Amino acid sequence: MKKKIKVLFICLGNICRSPAAQGAFENIVRKENKEFMFEIDSCGTSGFHDGELADPRTRKVALKRGIHLTHRSRKLTSNDLHYFDYLLVMDDNNFKDVNSLINDEQTRTKLFKFGSFDPENDSNIIPDPYYGSEREFEKVQDLVEKCSIGFLKFLGV
Ligand code: 4NP
């Protein structure tokens, strides 16, 4: 049996963008009957919201697209950096924070901005919706869906 591809989505609080990304990616992988190929998780750089479900606005927007989010927020650990094959961050601050925890070049090759997998997203960033309106959460959902498709294409599976 082939080894699973281990994918970790990372944002600041692990209650808005990375759970949305996890849910969107799991959904597309399920639709394509590729669940057996992946291990998928998400976390935050901060630990501010440890143990919490995703933000109610994140869950509402995901549910409108048929995605039920049950993930509980957790903080990134140093073990994650070695365990996962892909470390997918949402913005420049996440990139800086995770990059500063990495001390070997092999691990650094696993770090990507998730937004870079959407060819139409010039900024390469999934913007933080936390202080925005529901519209910002819808935008995040649209972006993570497009990036999920792009990331699967990139993997070529
Ligand atoms: P996330 O959004 O990083 O996409 O989960 C945020 C969630 C919480 C906070 C900031 C951003 N906060 O400051 O508590």
UniProtKB/TrEMBL annotation:
Its EC number is 3.1.3.48. It comes from the Bacteria. It holds the Pfam family LMWPc. SMART domains: LMWPc. It is an enzyme of class 3 (hydrolase). Keywords: Cytoplasm, Hydrolase, Protein phosphatase. Residues 5-154 form the Phosphotyrosine protein phosphatase I domain. The active site is at residues 11, 17, 128. InterPro entries: LMW_PTPase, Ptyr_pPase, Ptyr_pPase_sf, Tyr_Pase_low_mol_wt_mml, Tyr_phospatase_low_mol_wt. GO terms for molecular function: acid phosphatase activity; non-membrane spanning protein tyrosine phosphatase activity. GO terms for cellular component: cytoplasm. Its main location: cytoplasm. It is found in: Cytoplasm. The keyword Cytoplasm applies. Belongs to the low molecular weight phosphotyrosine protein phosphatase family. This is protein-tyrosine-phosphatase.
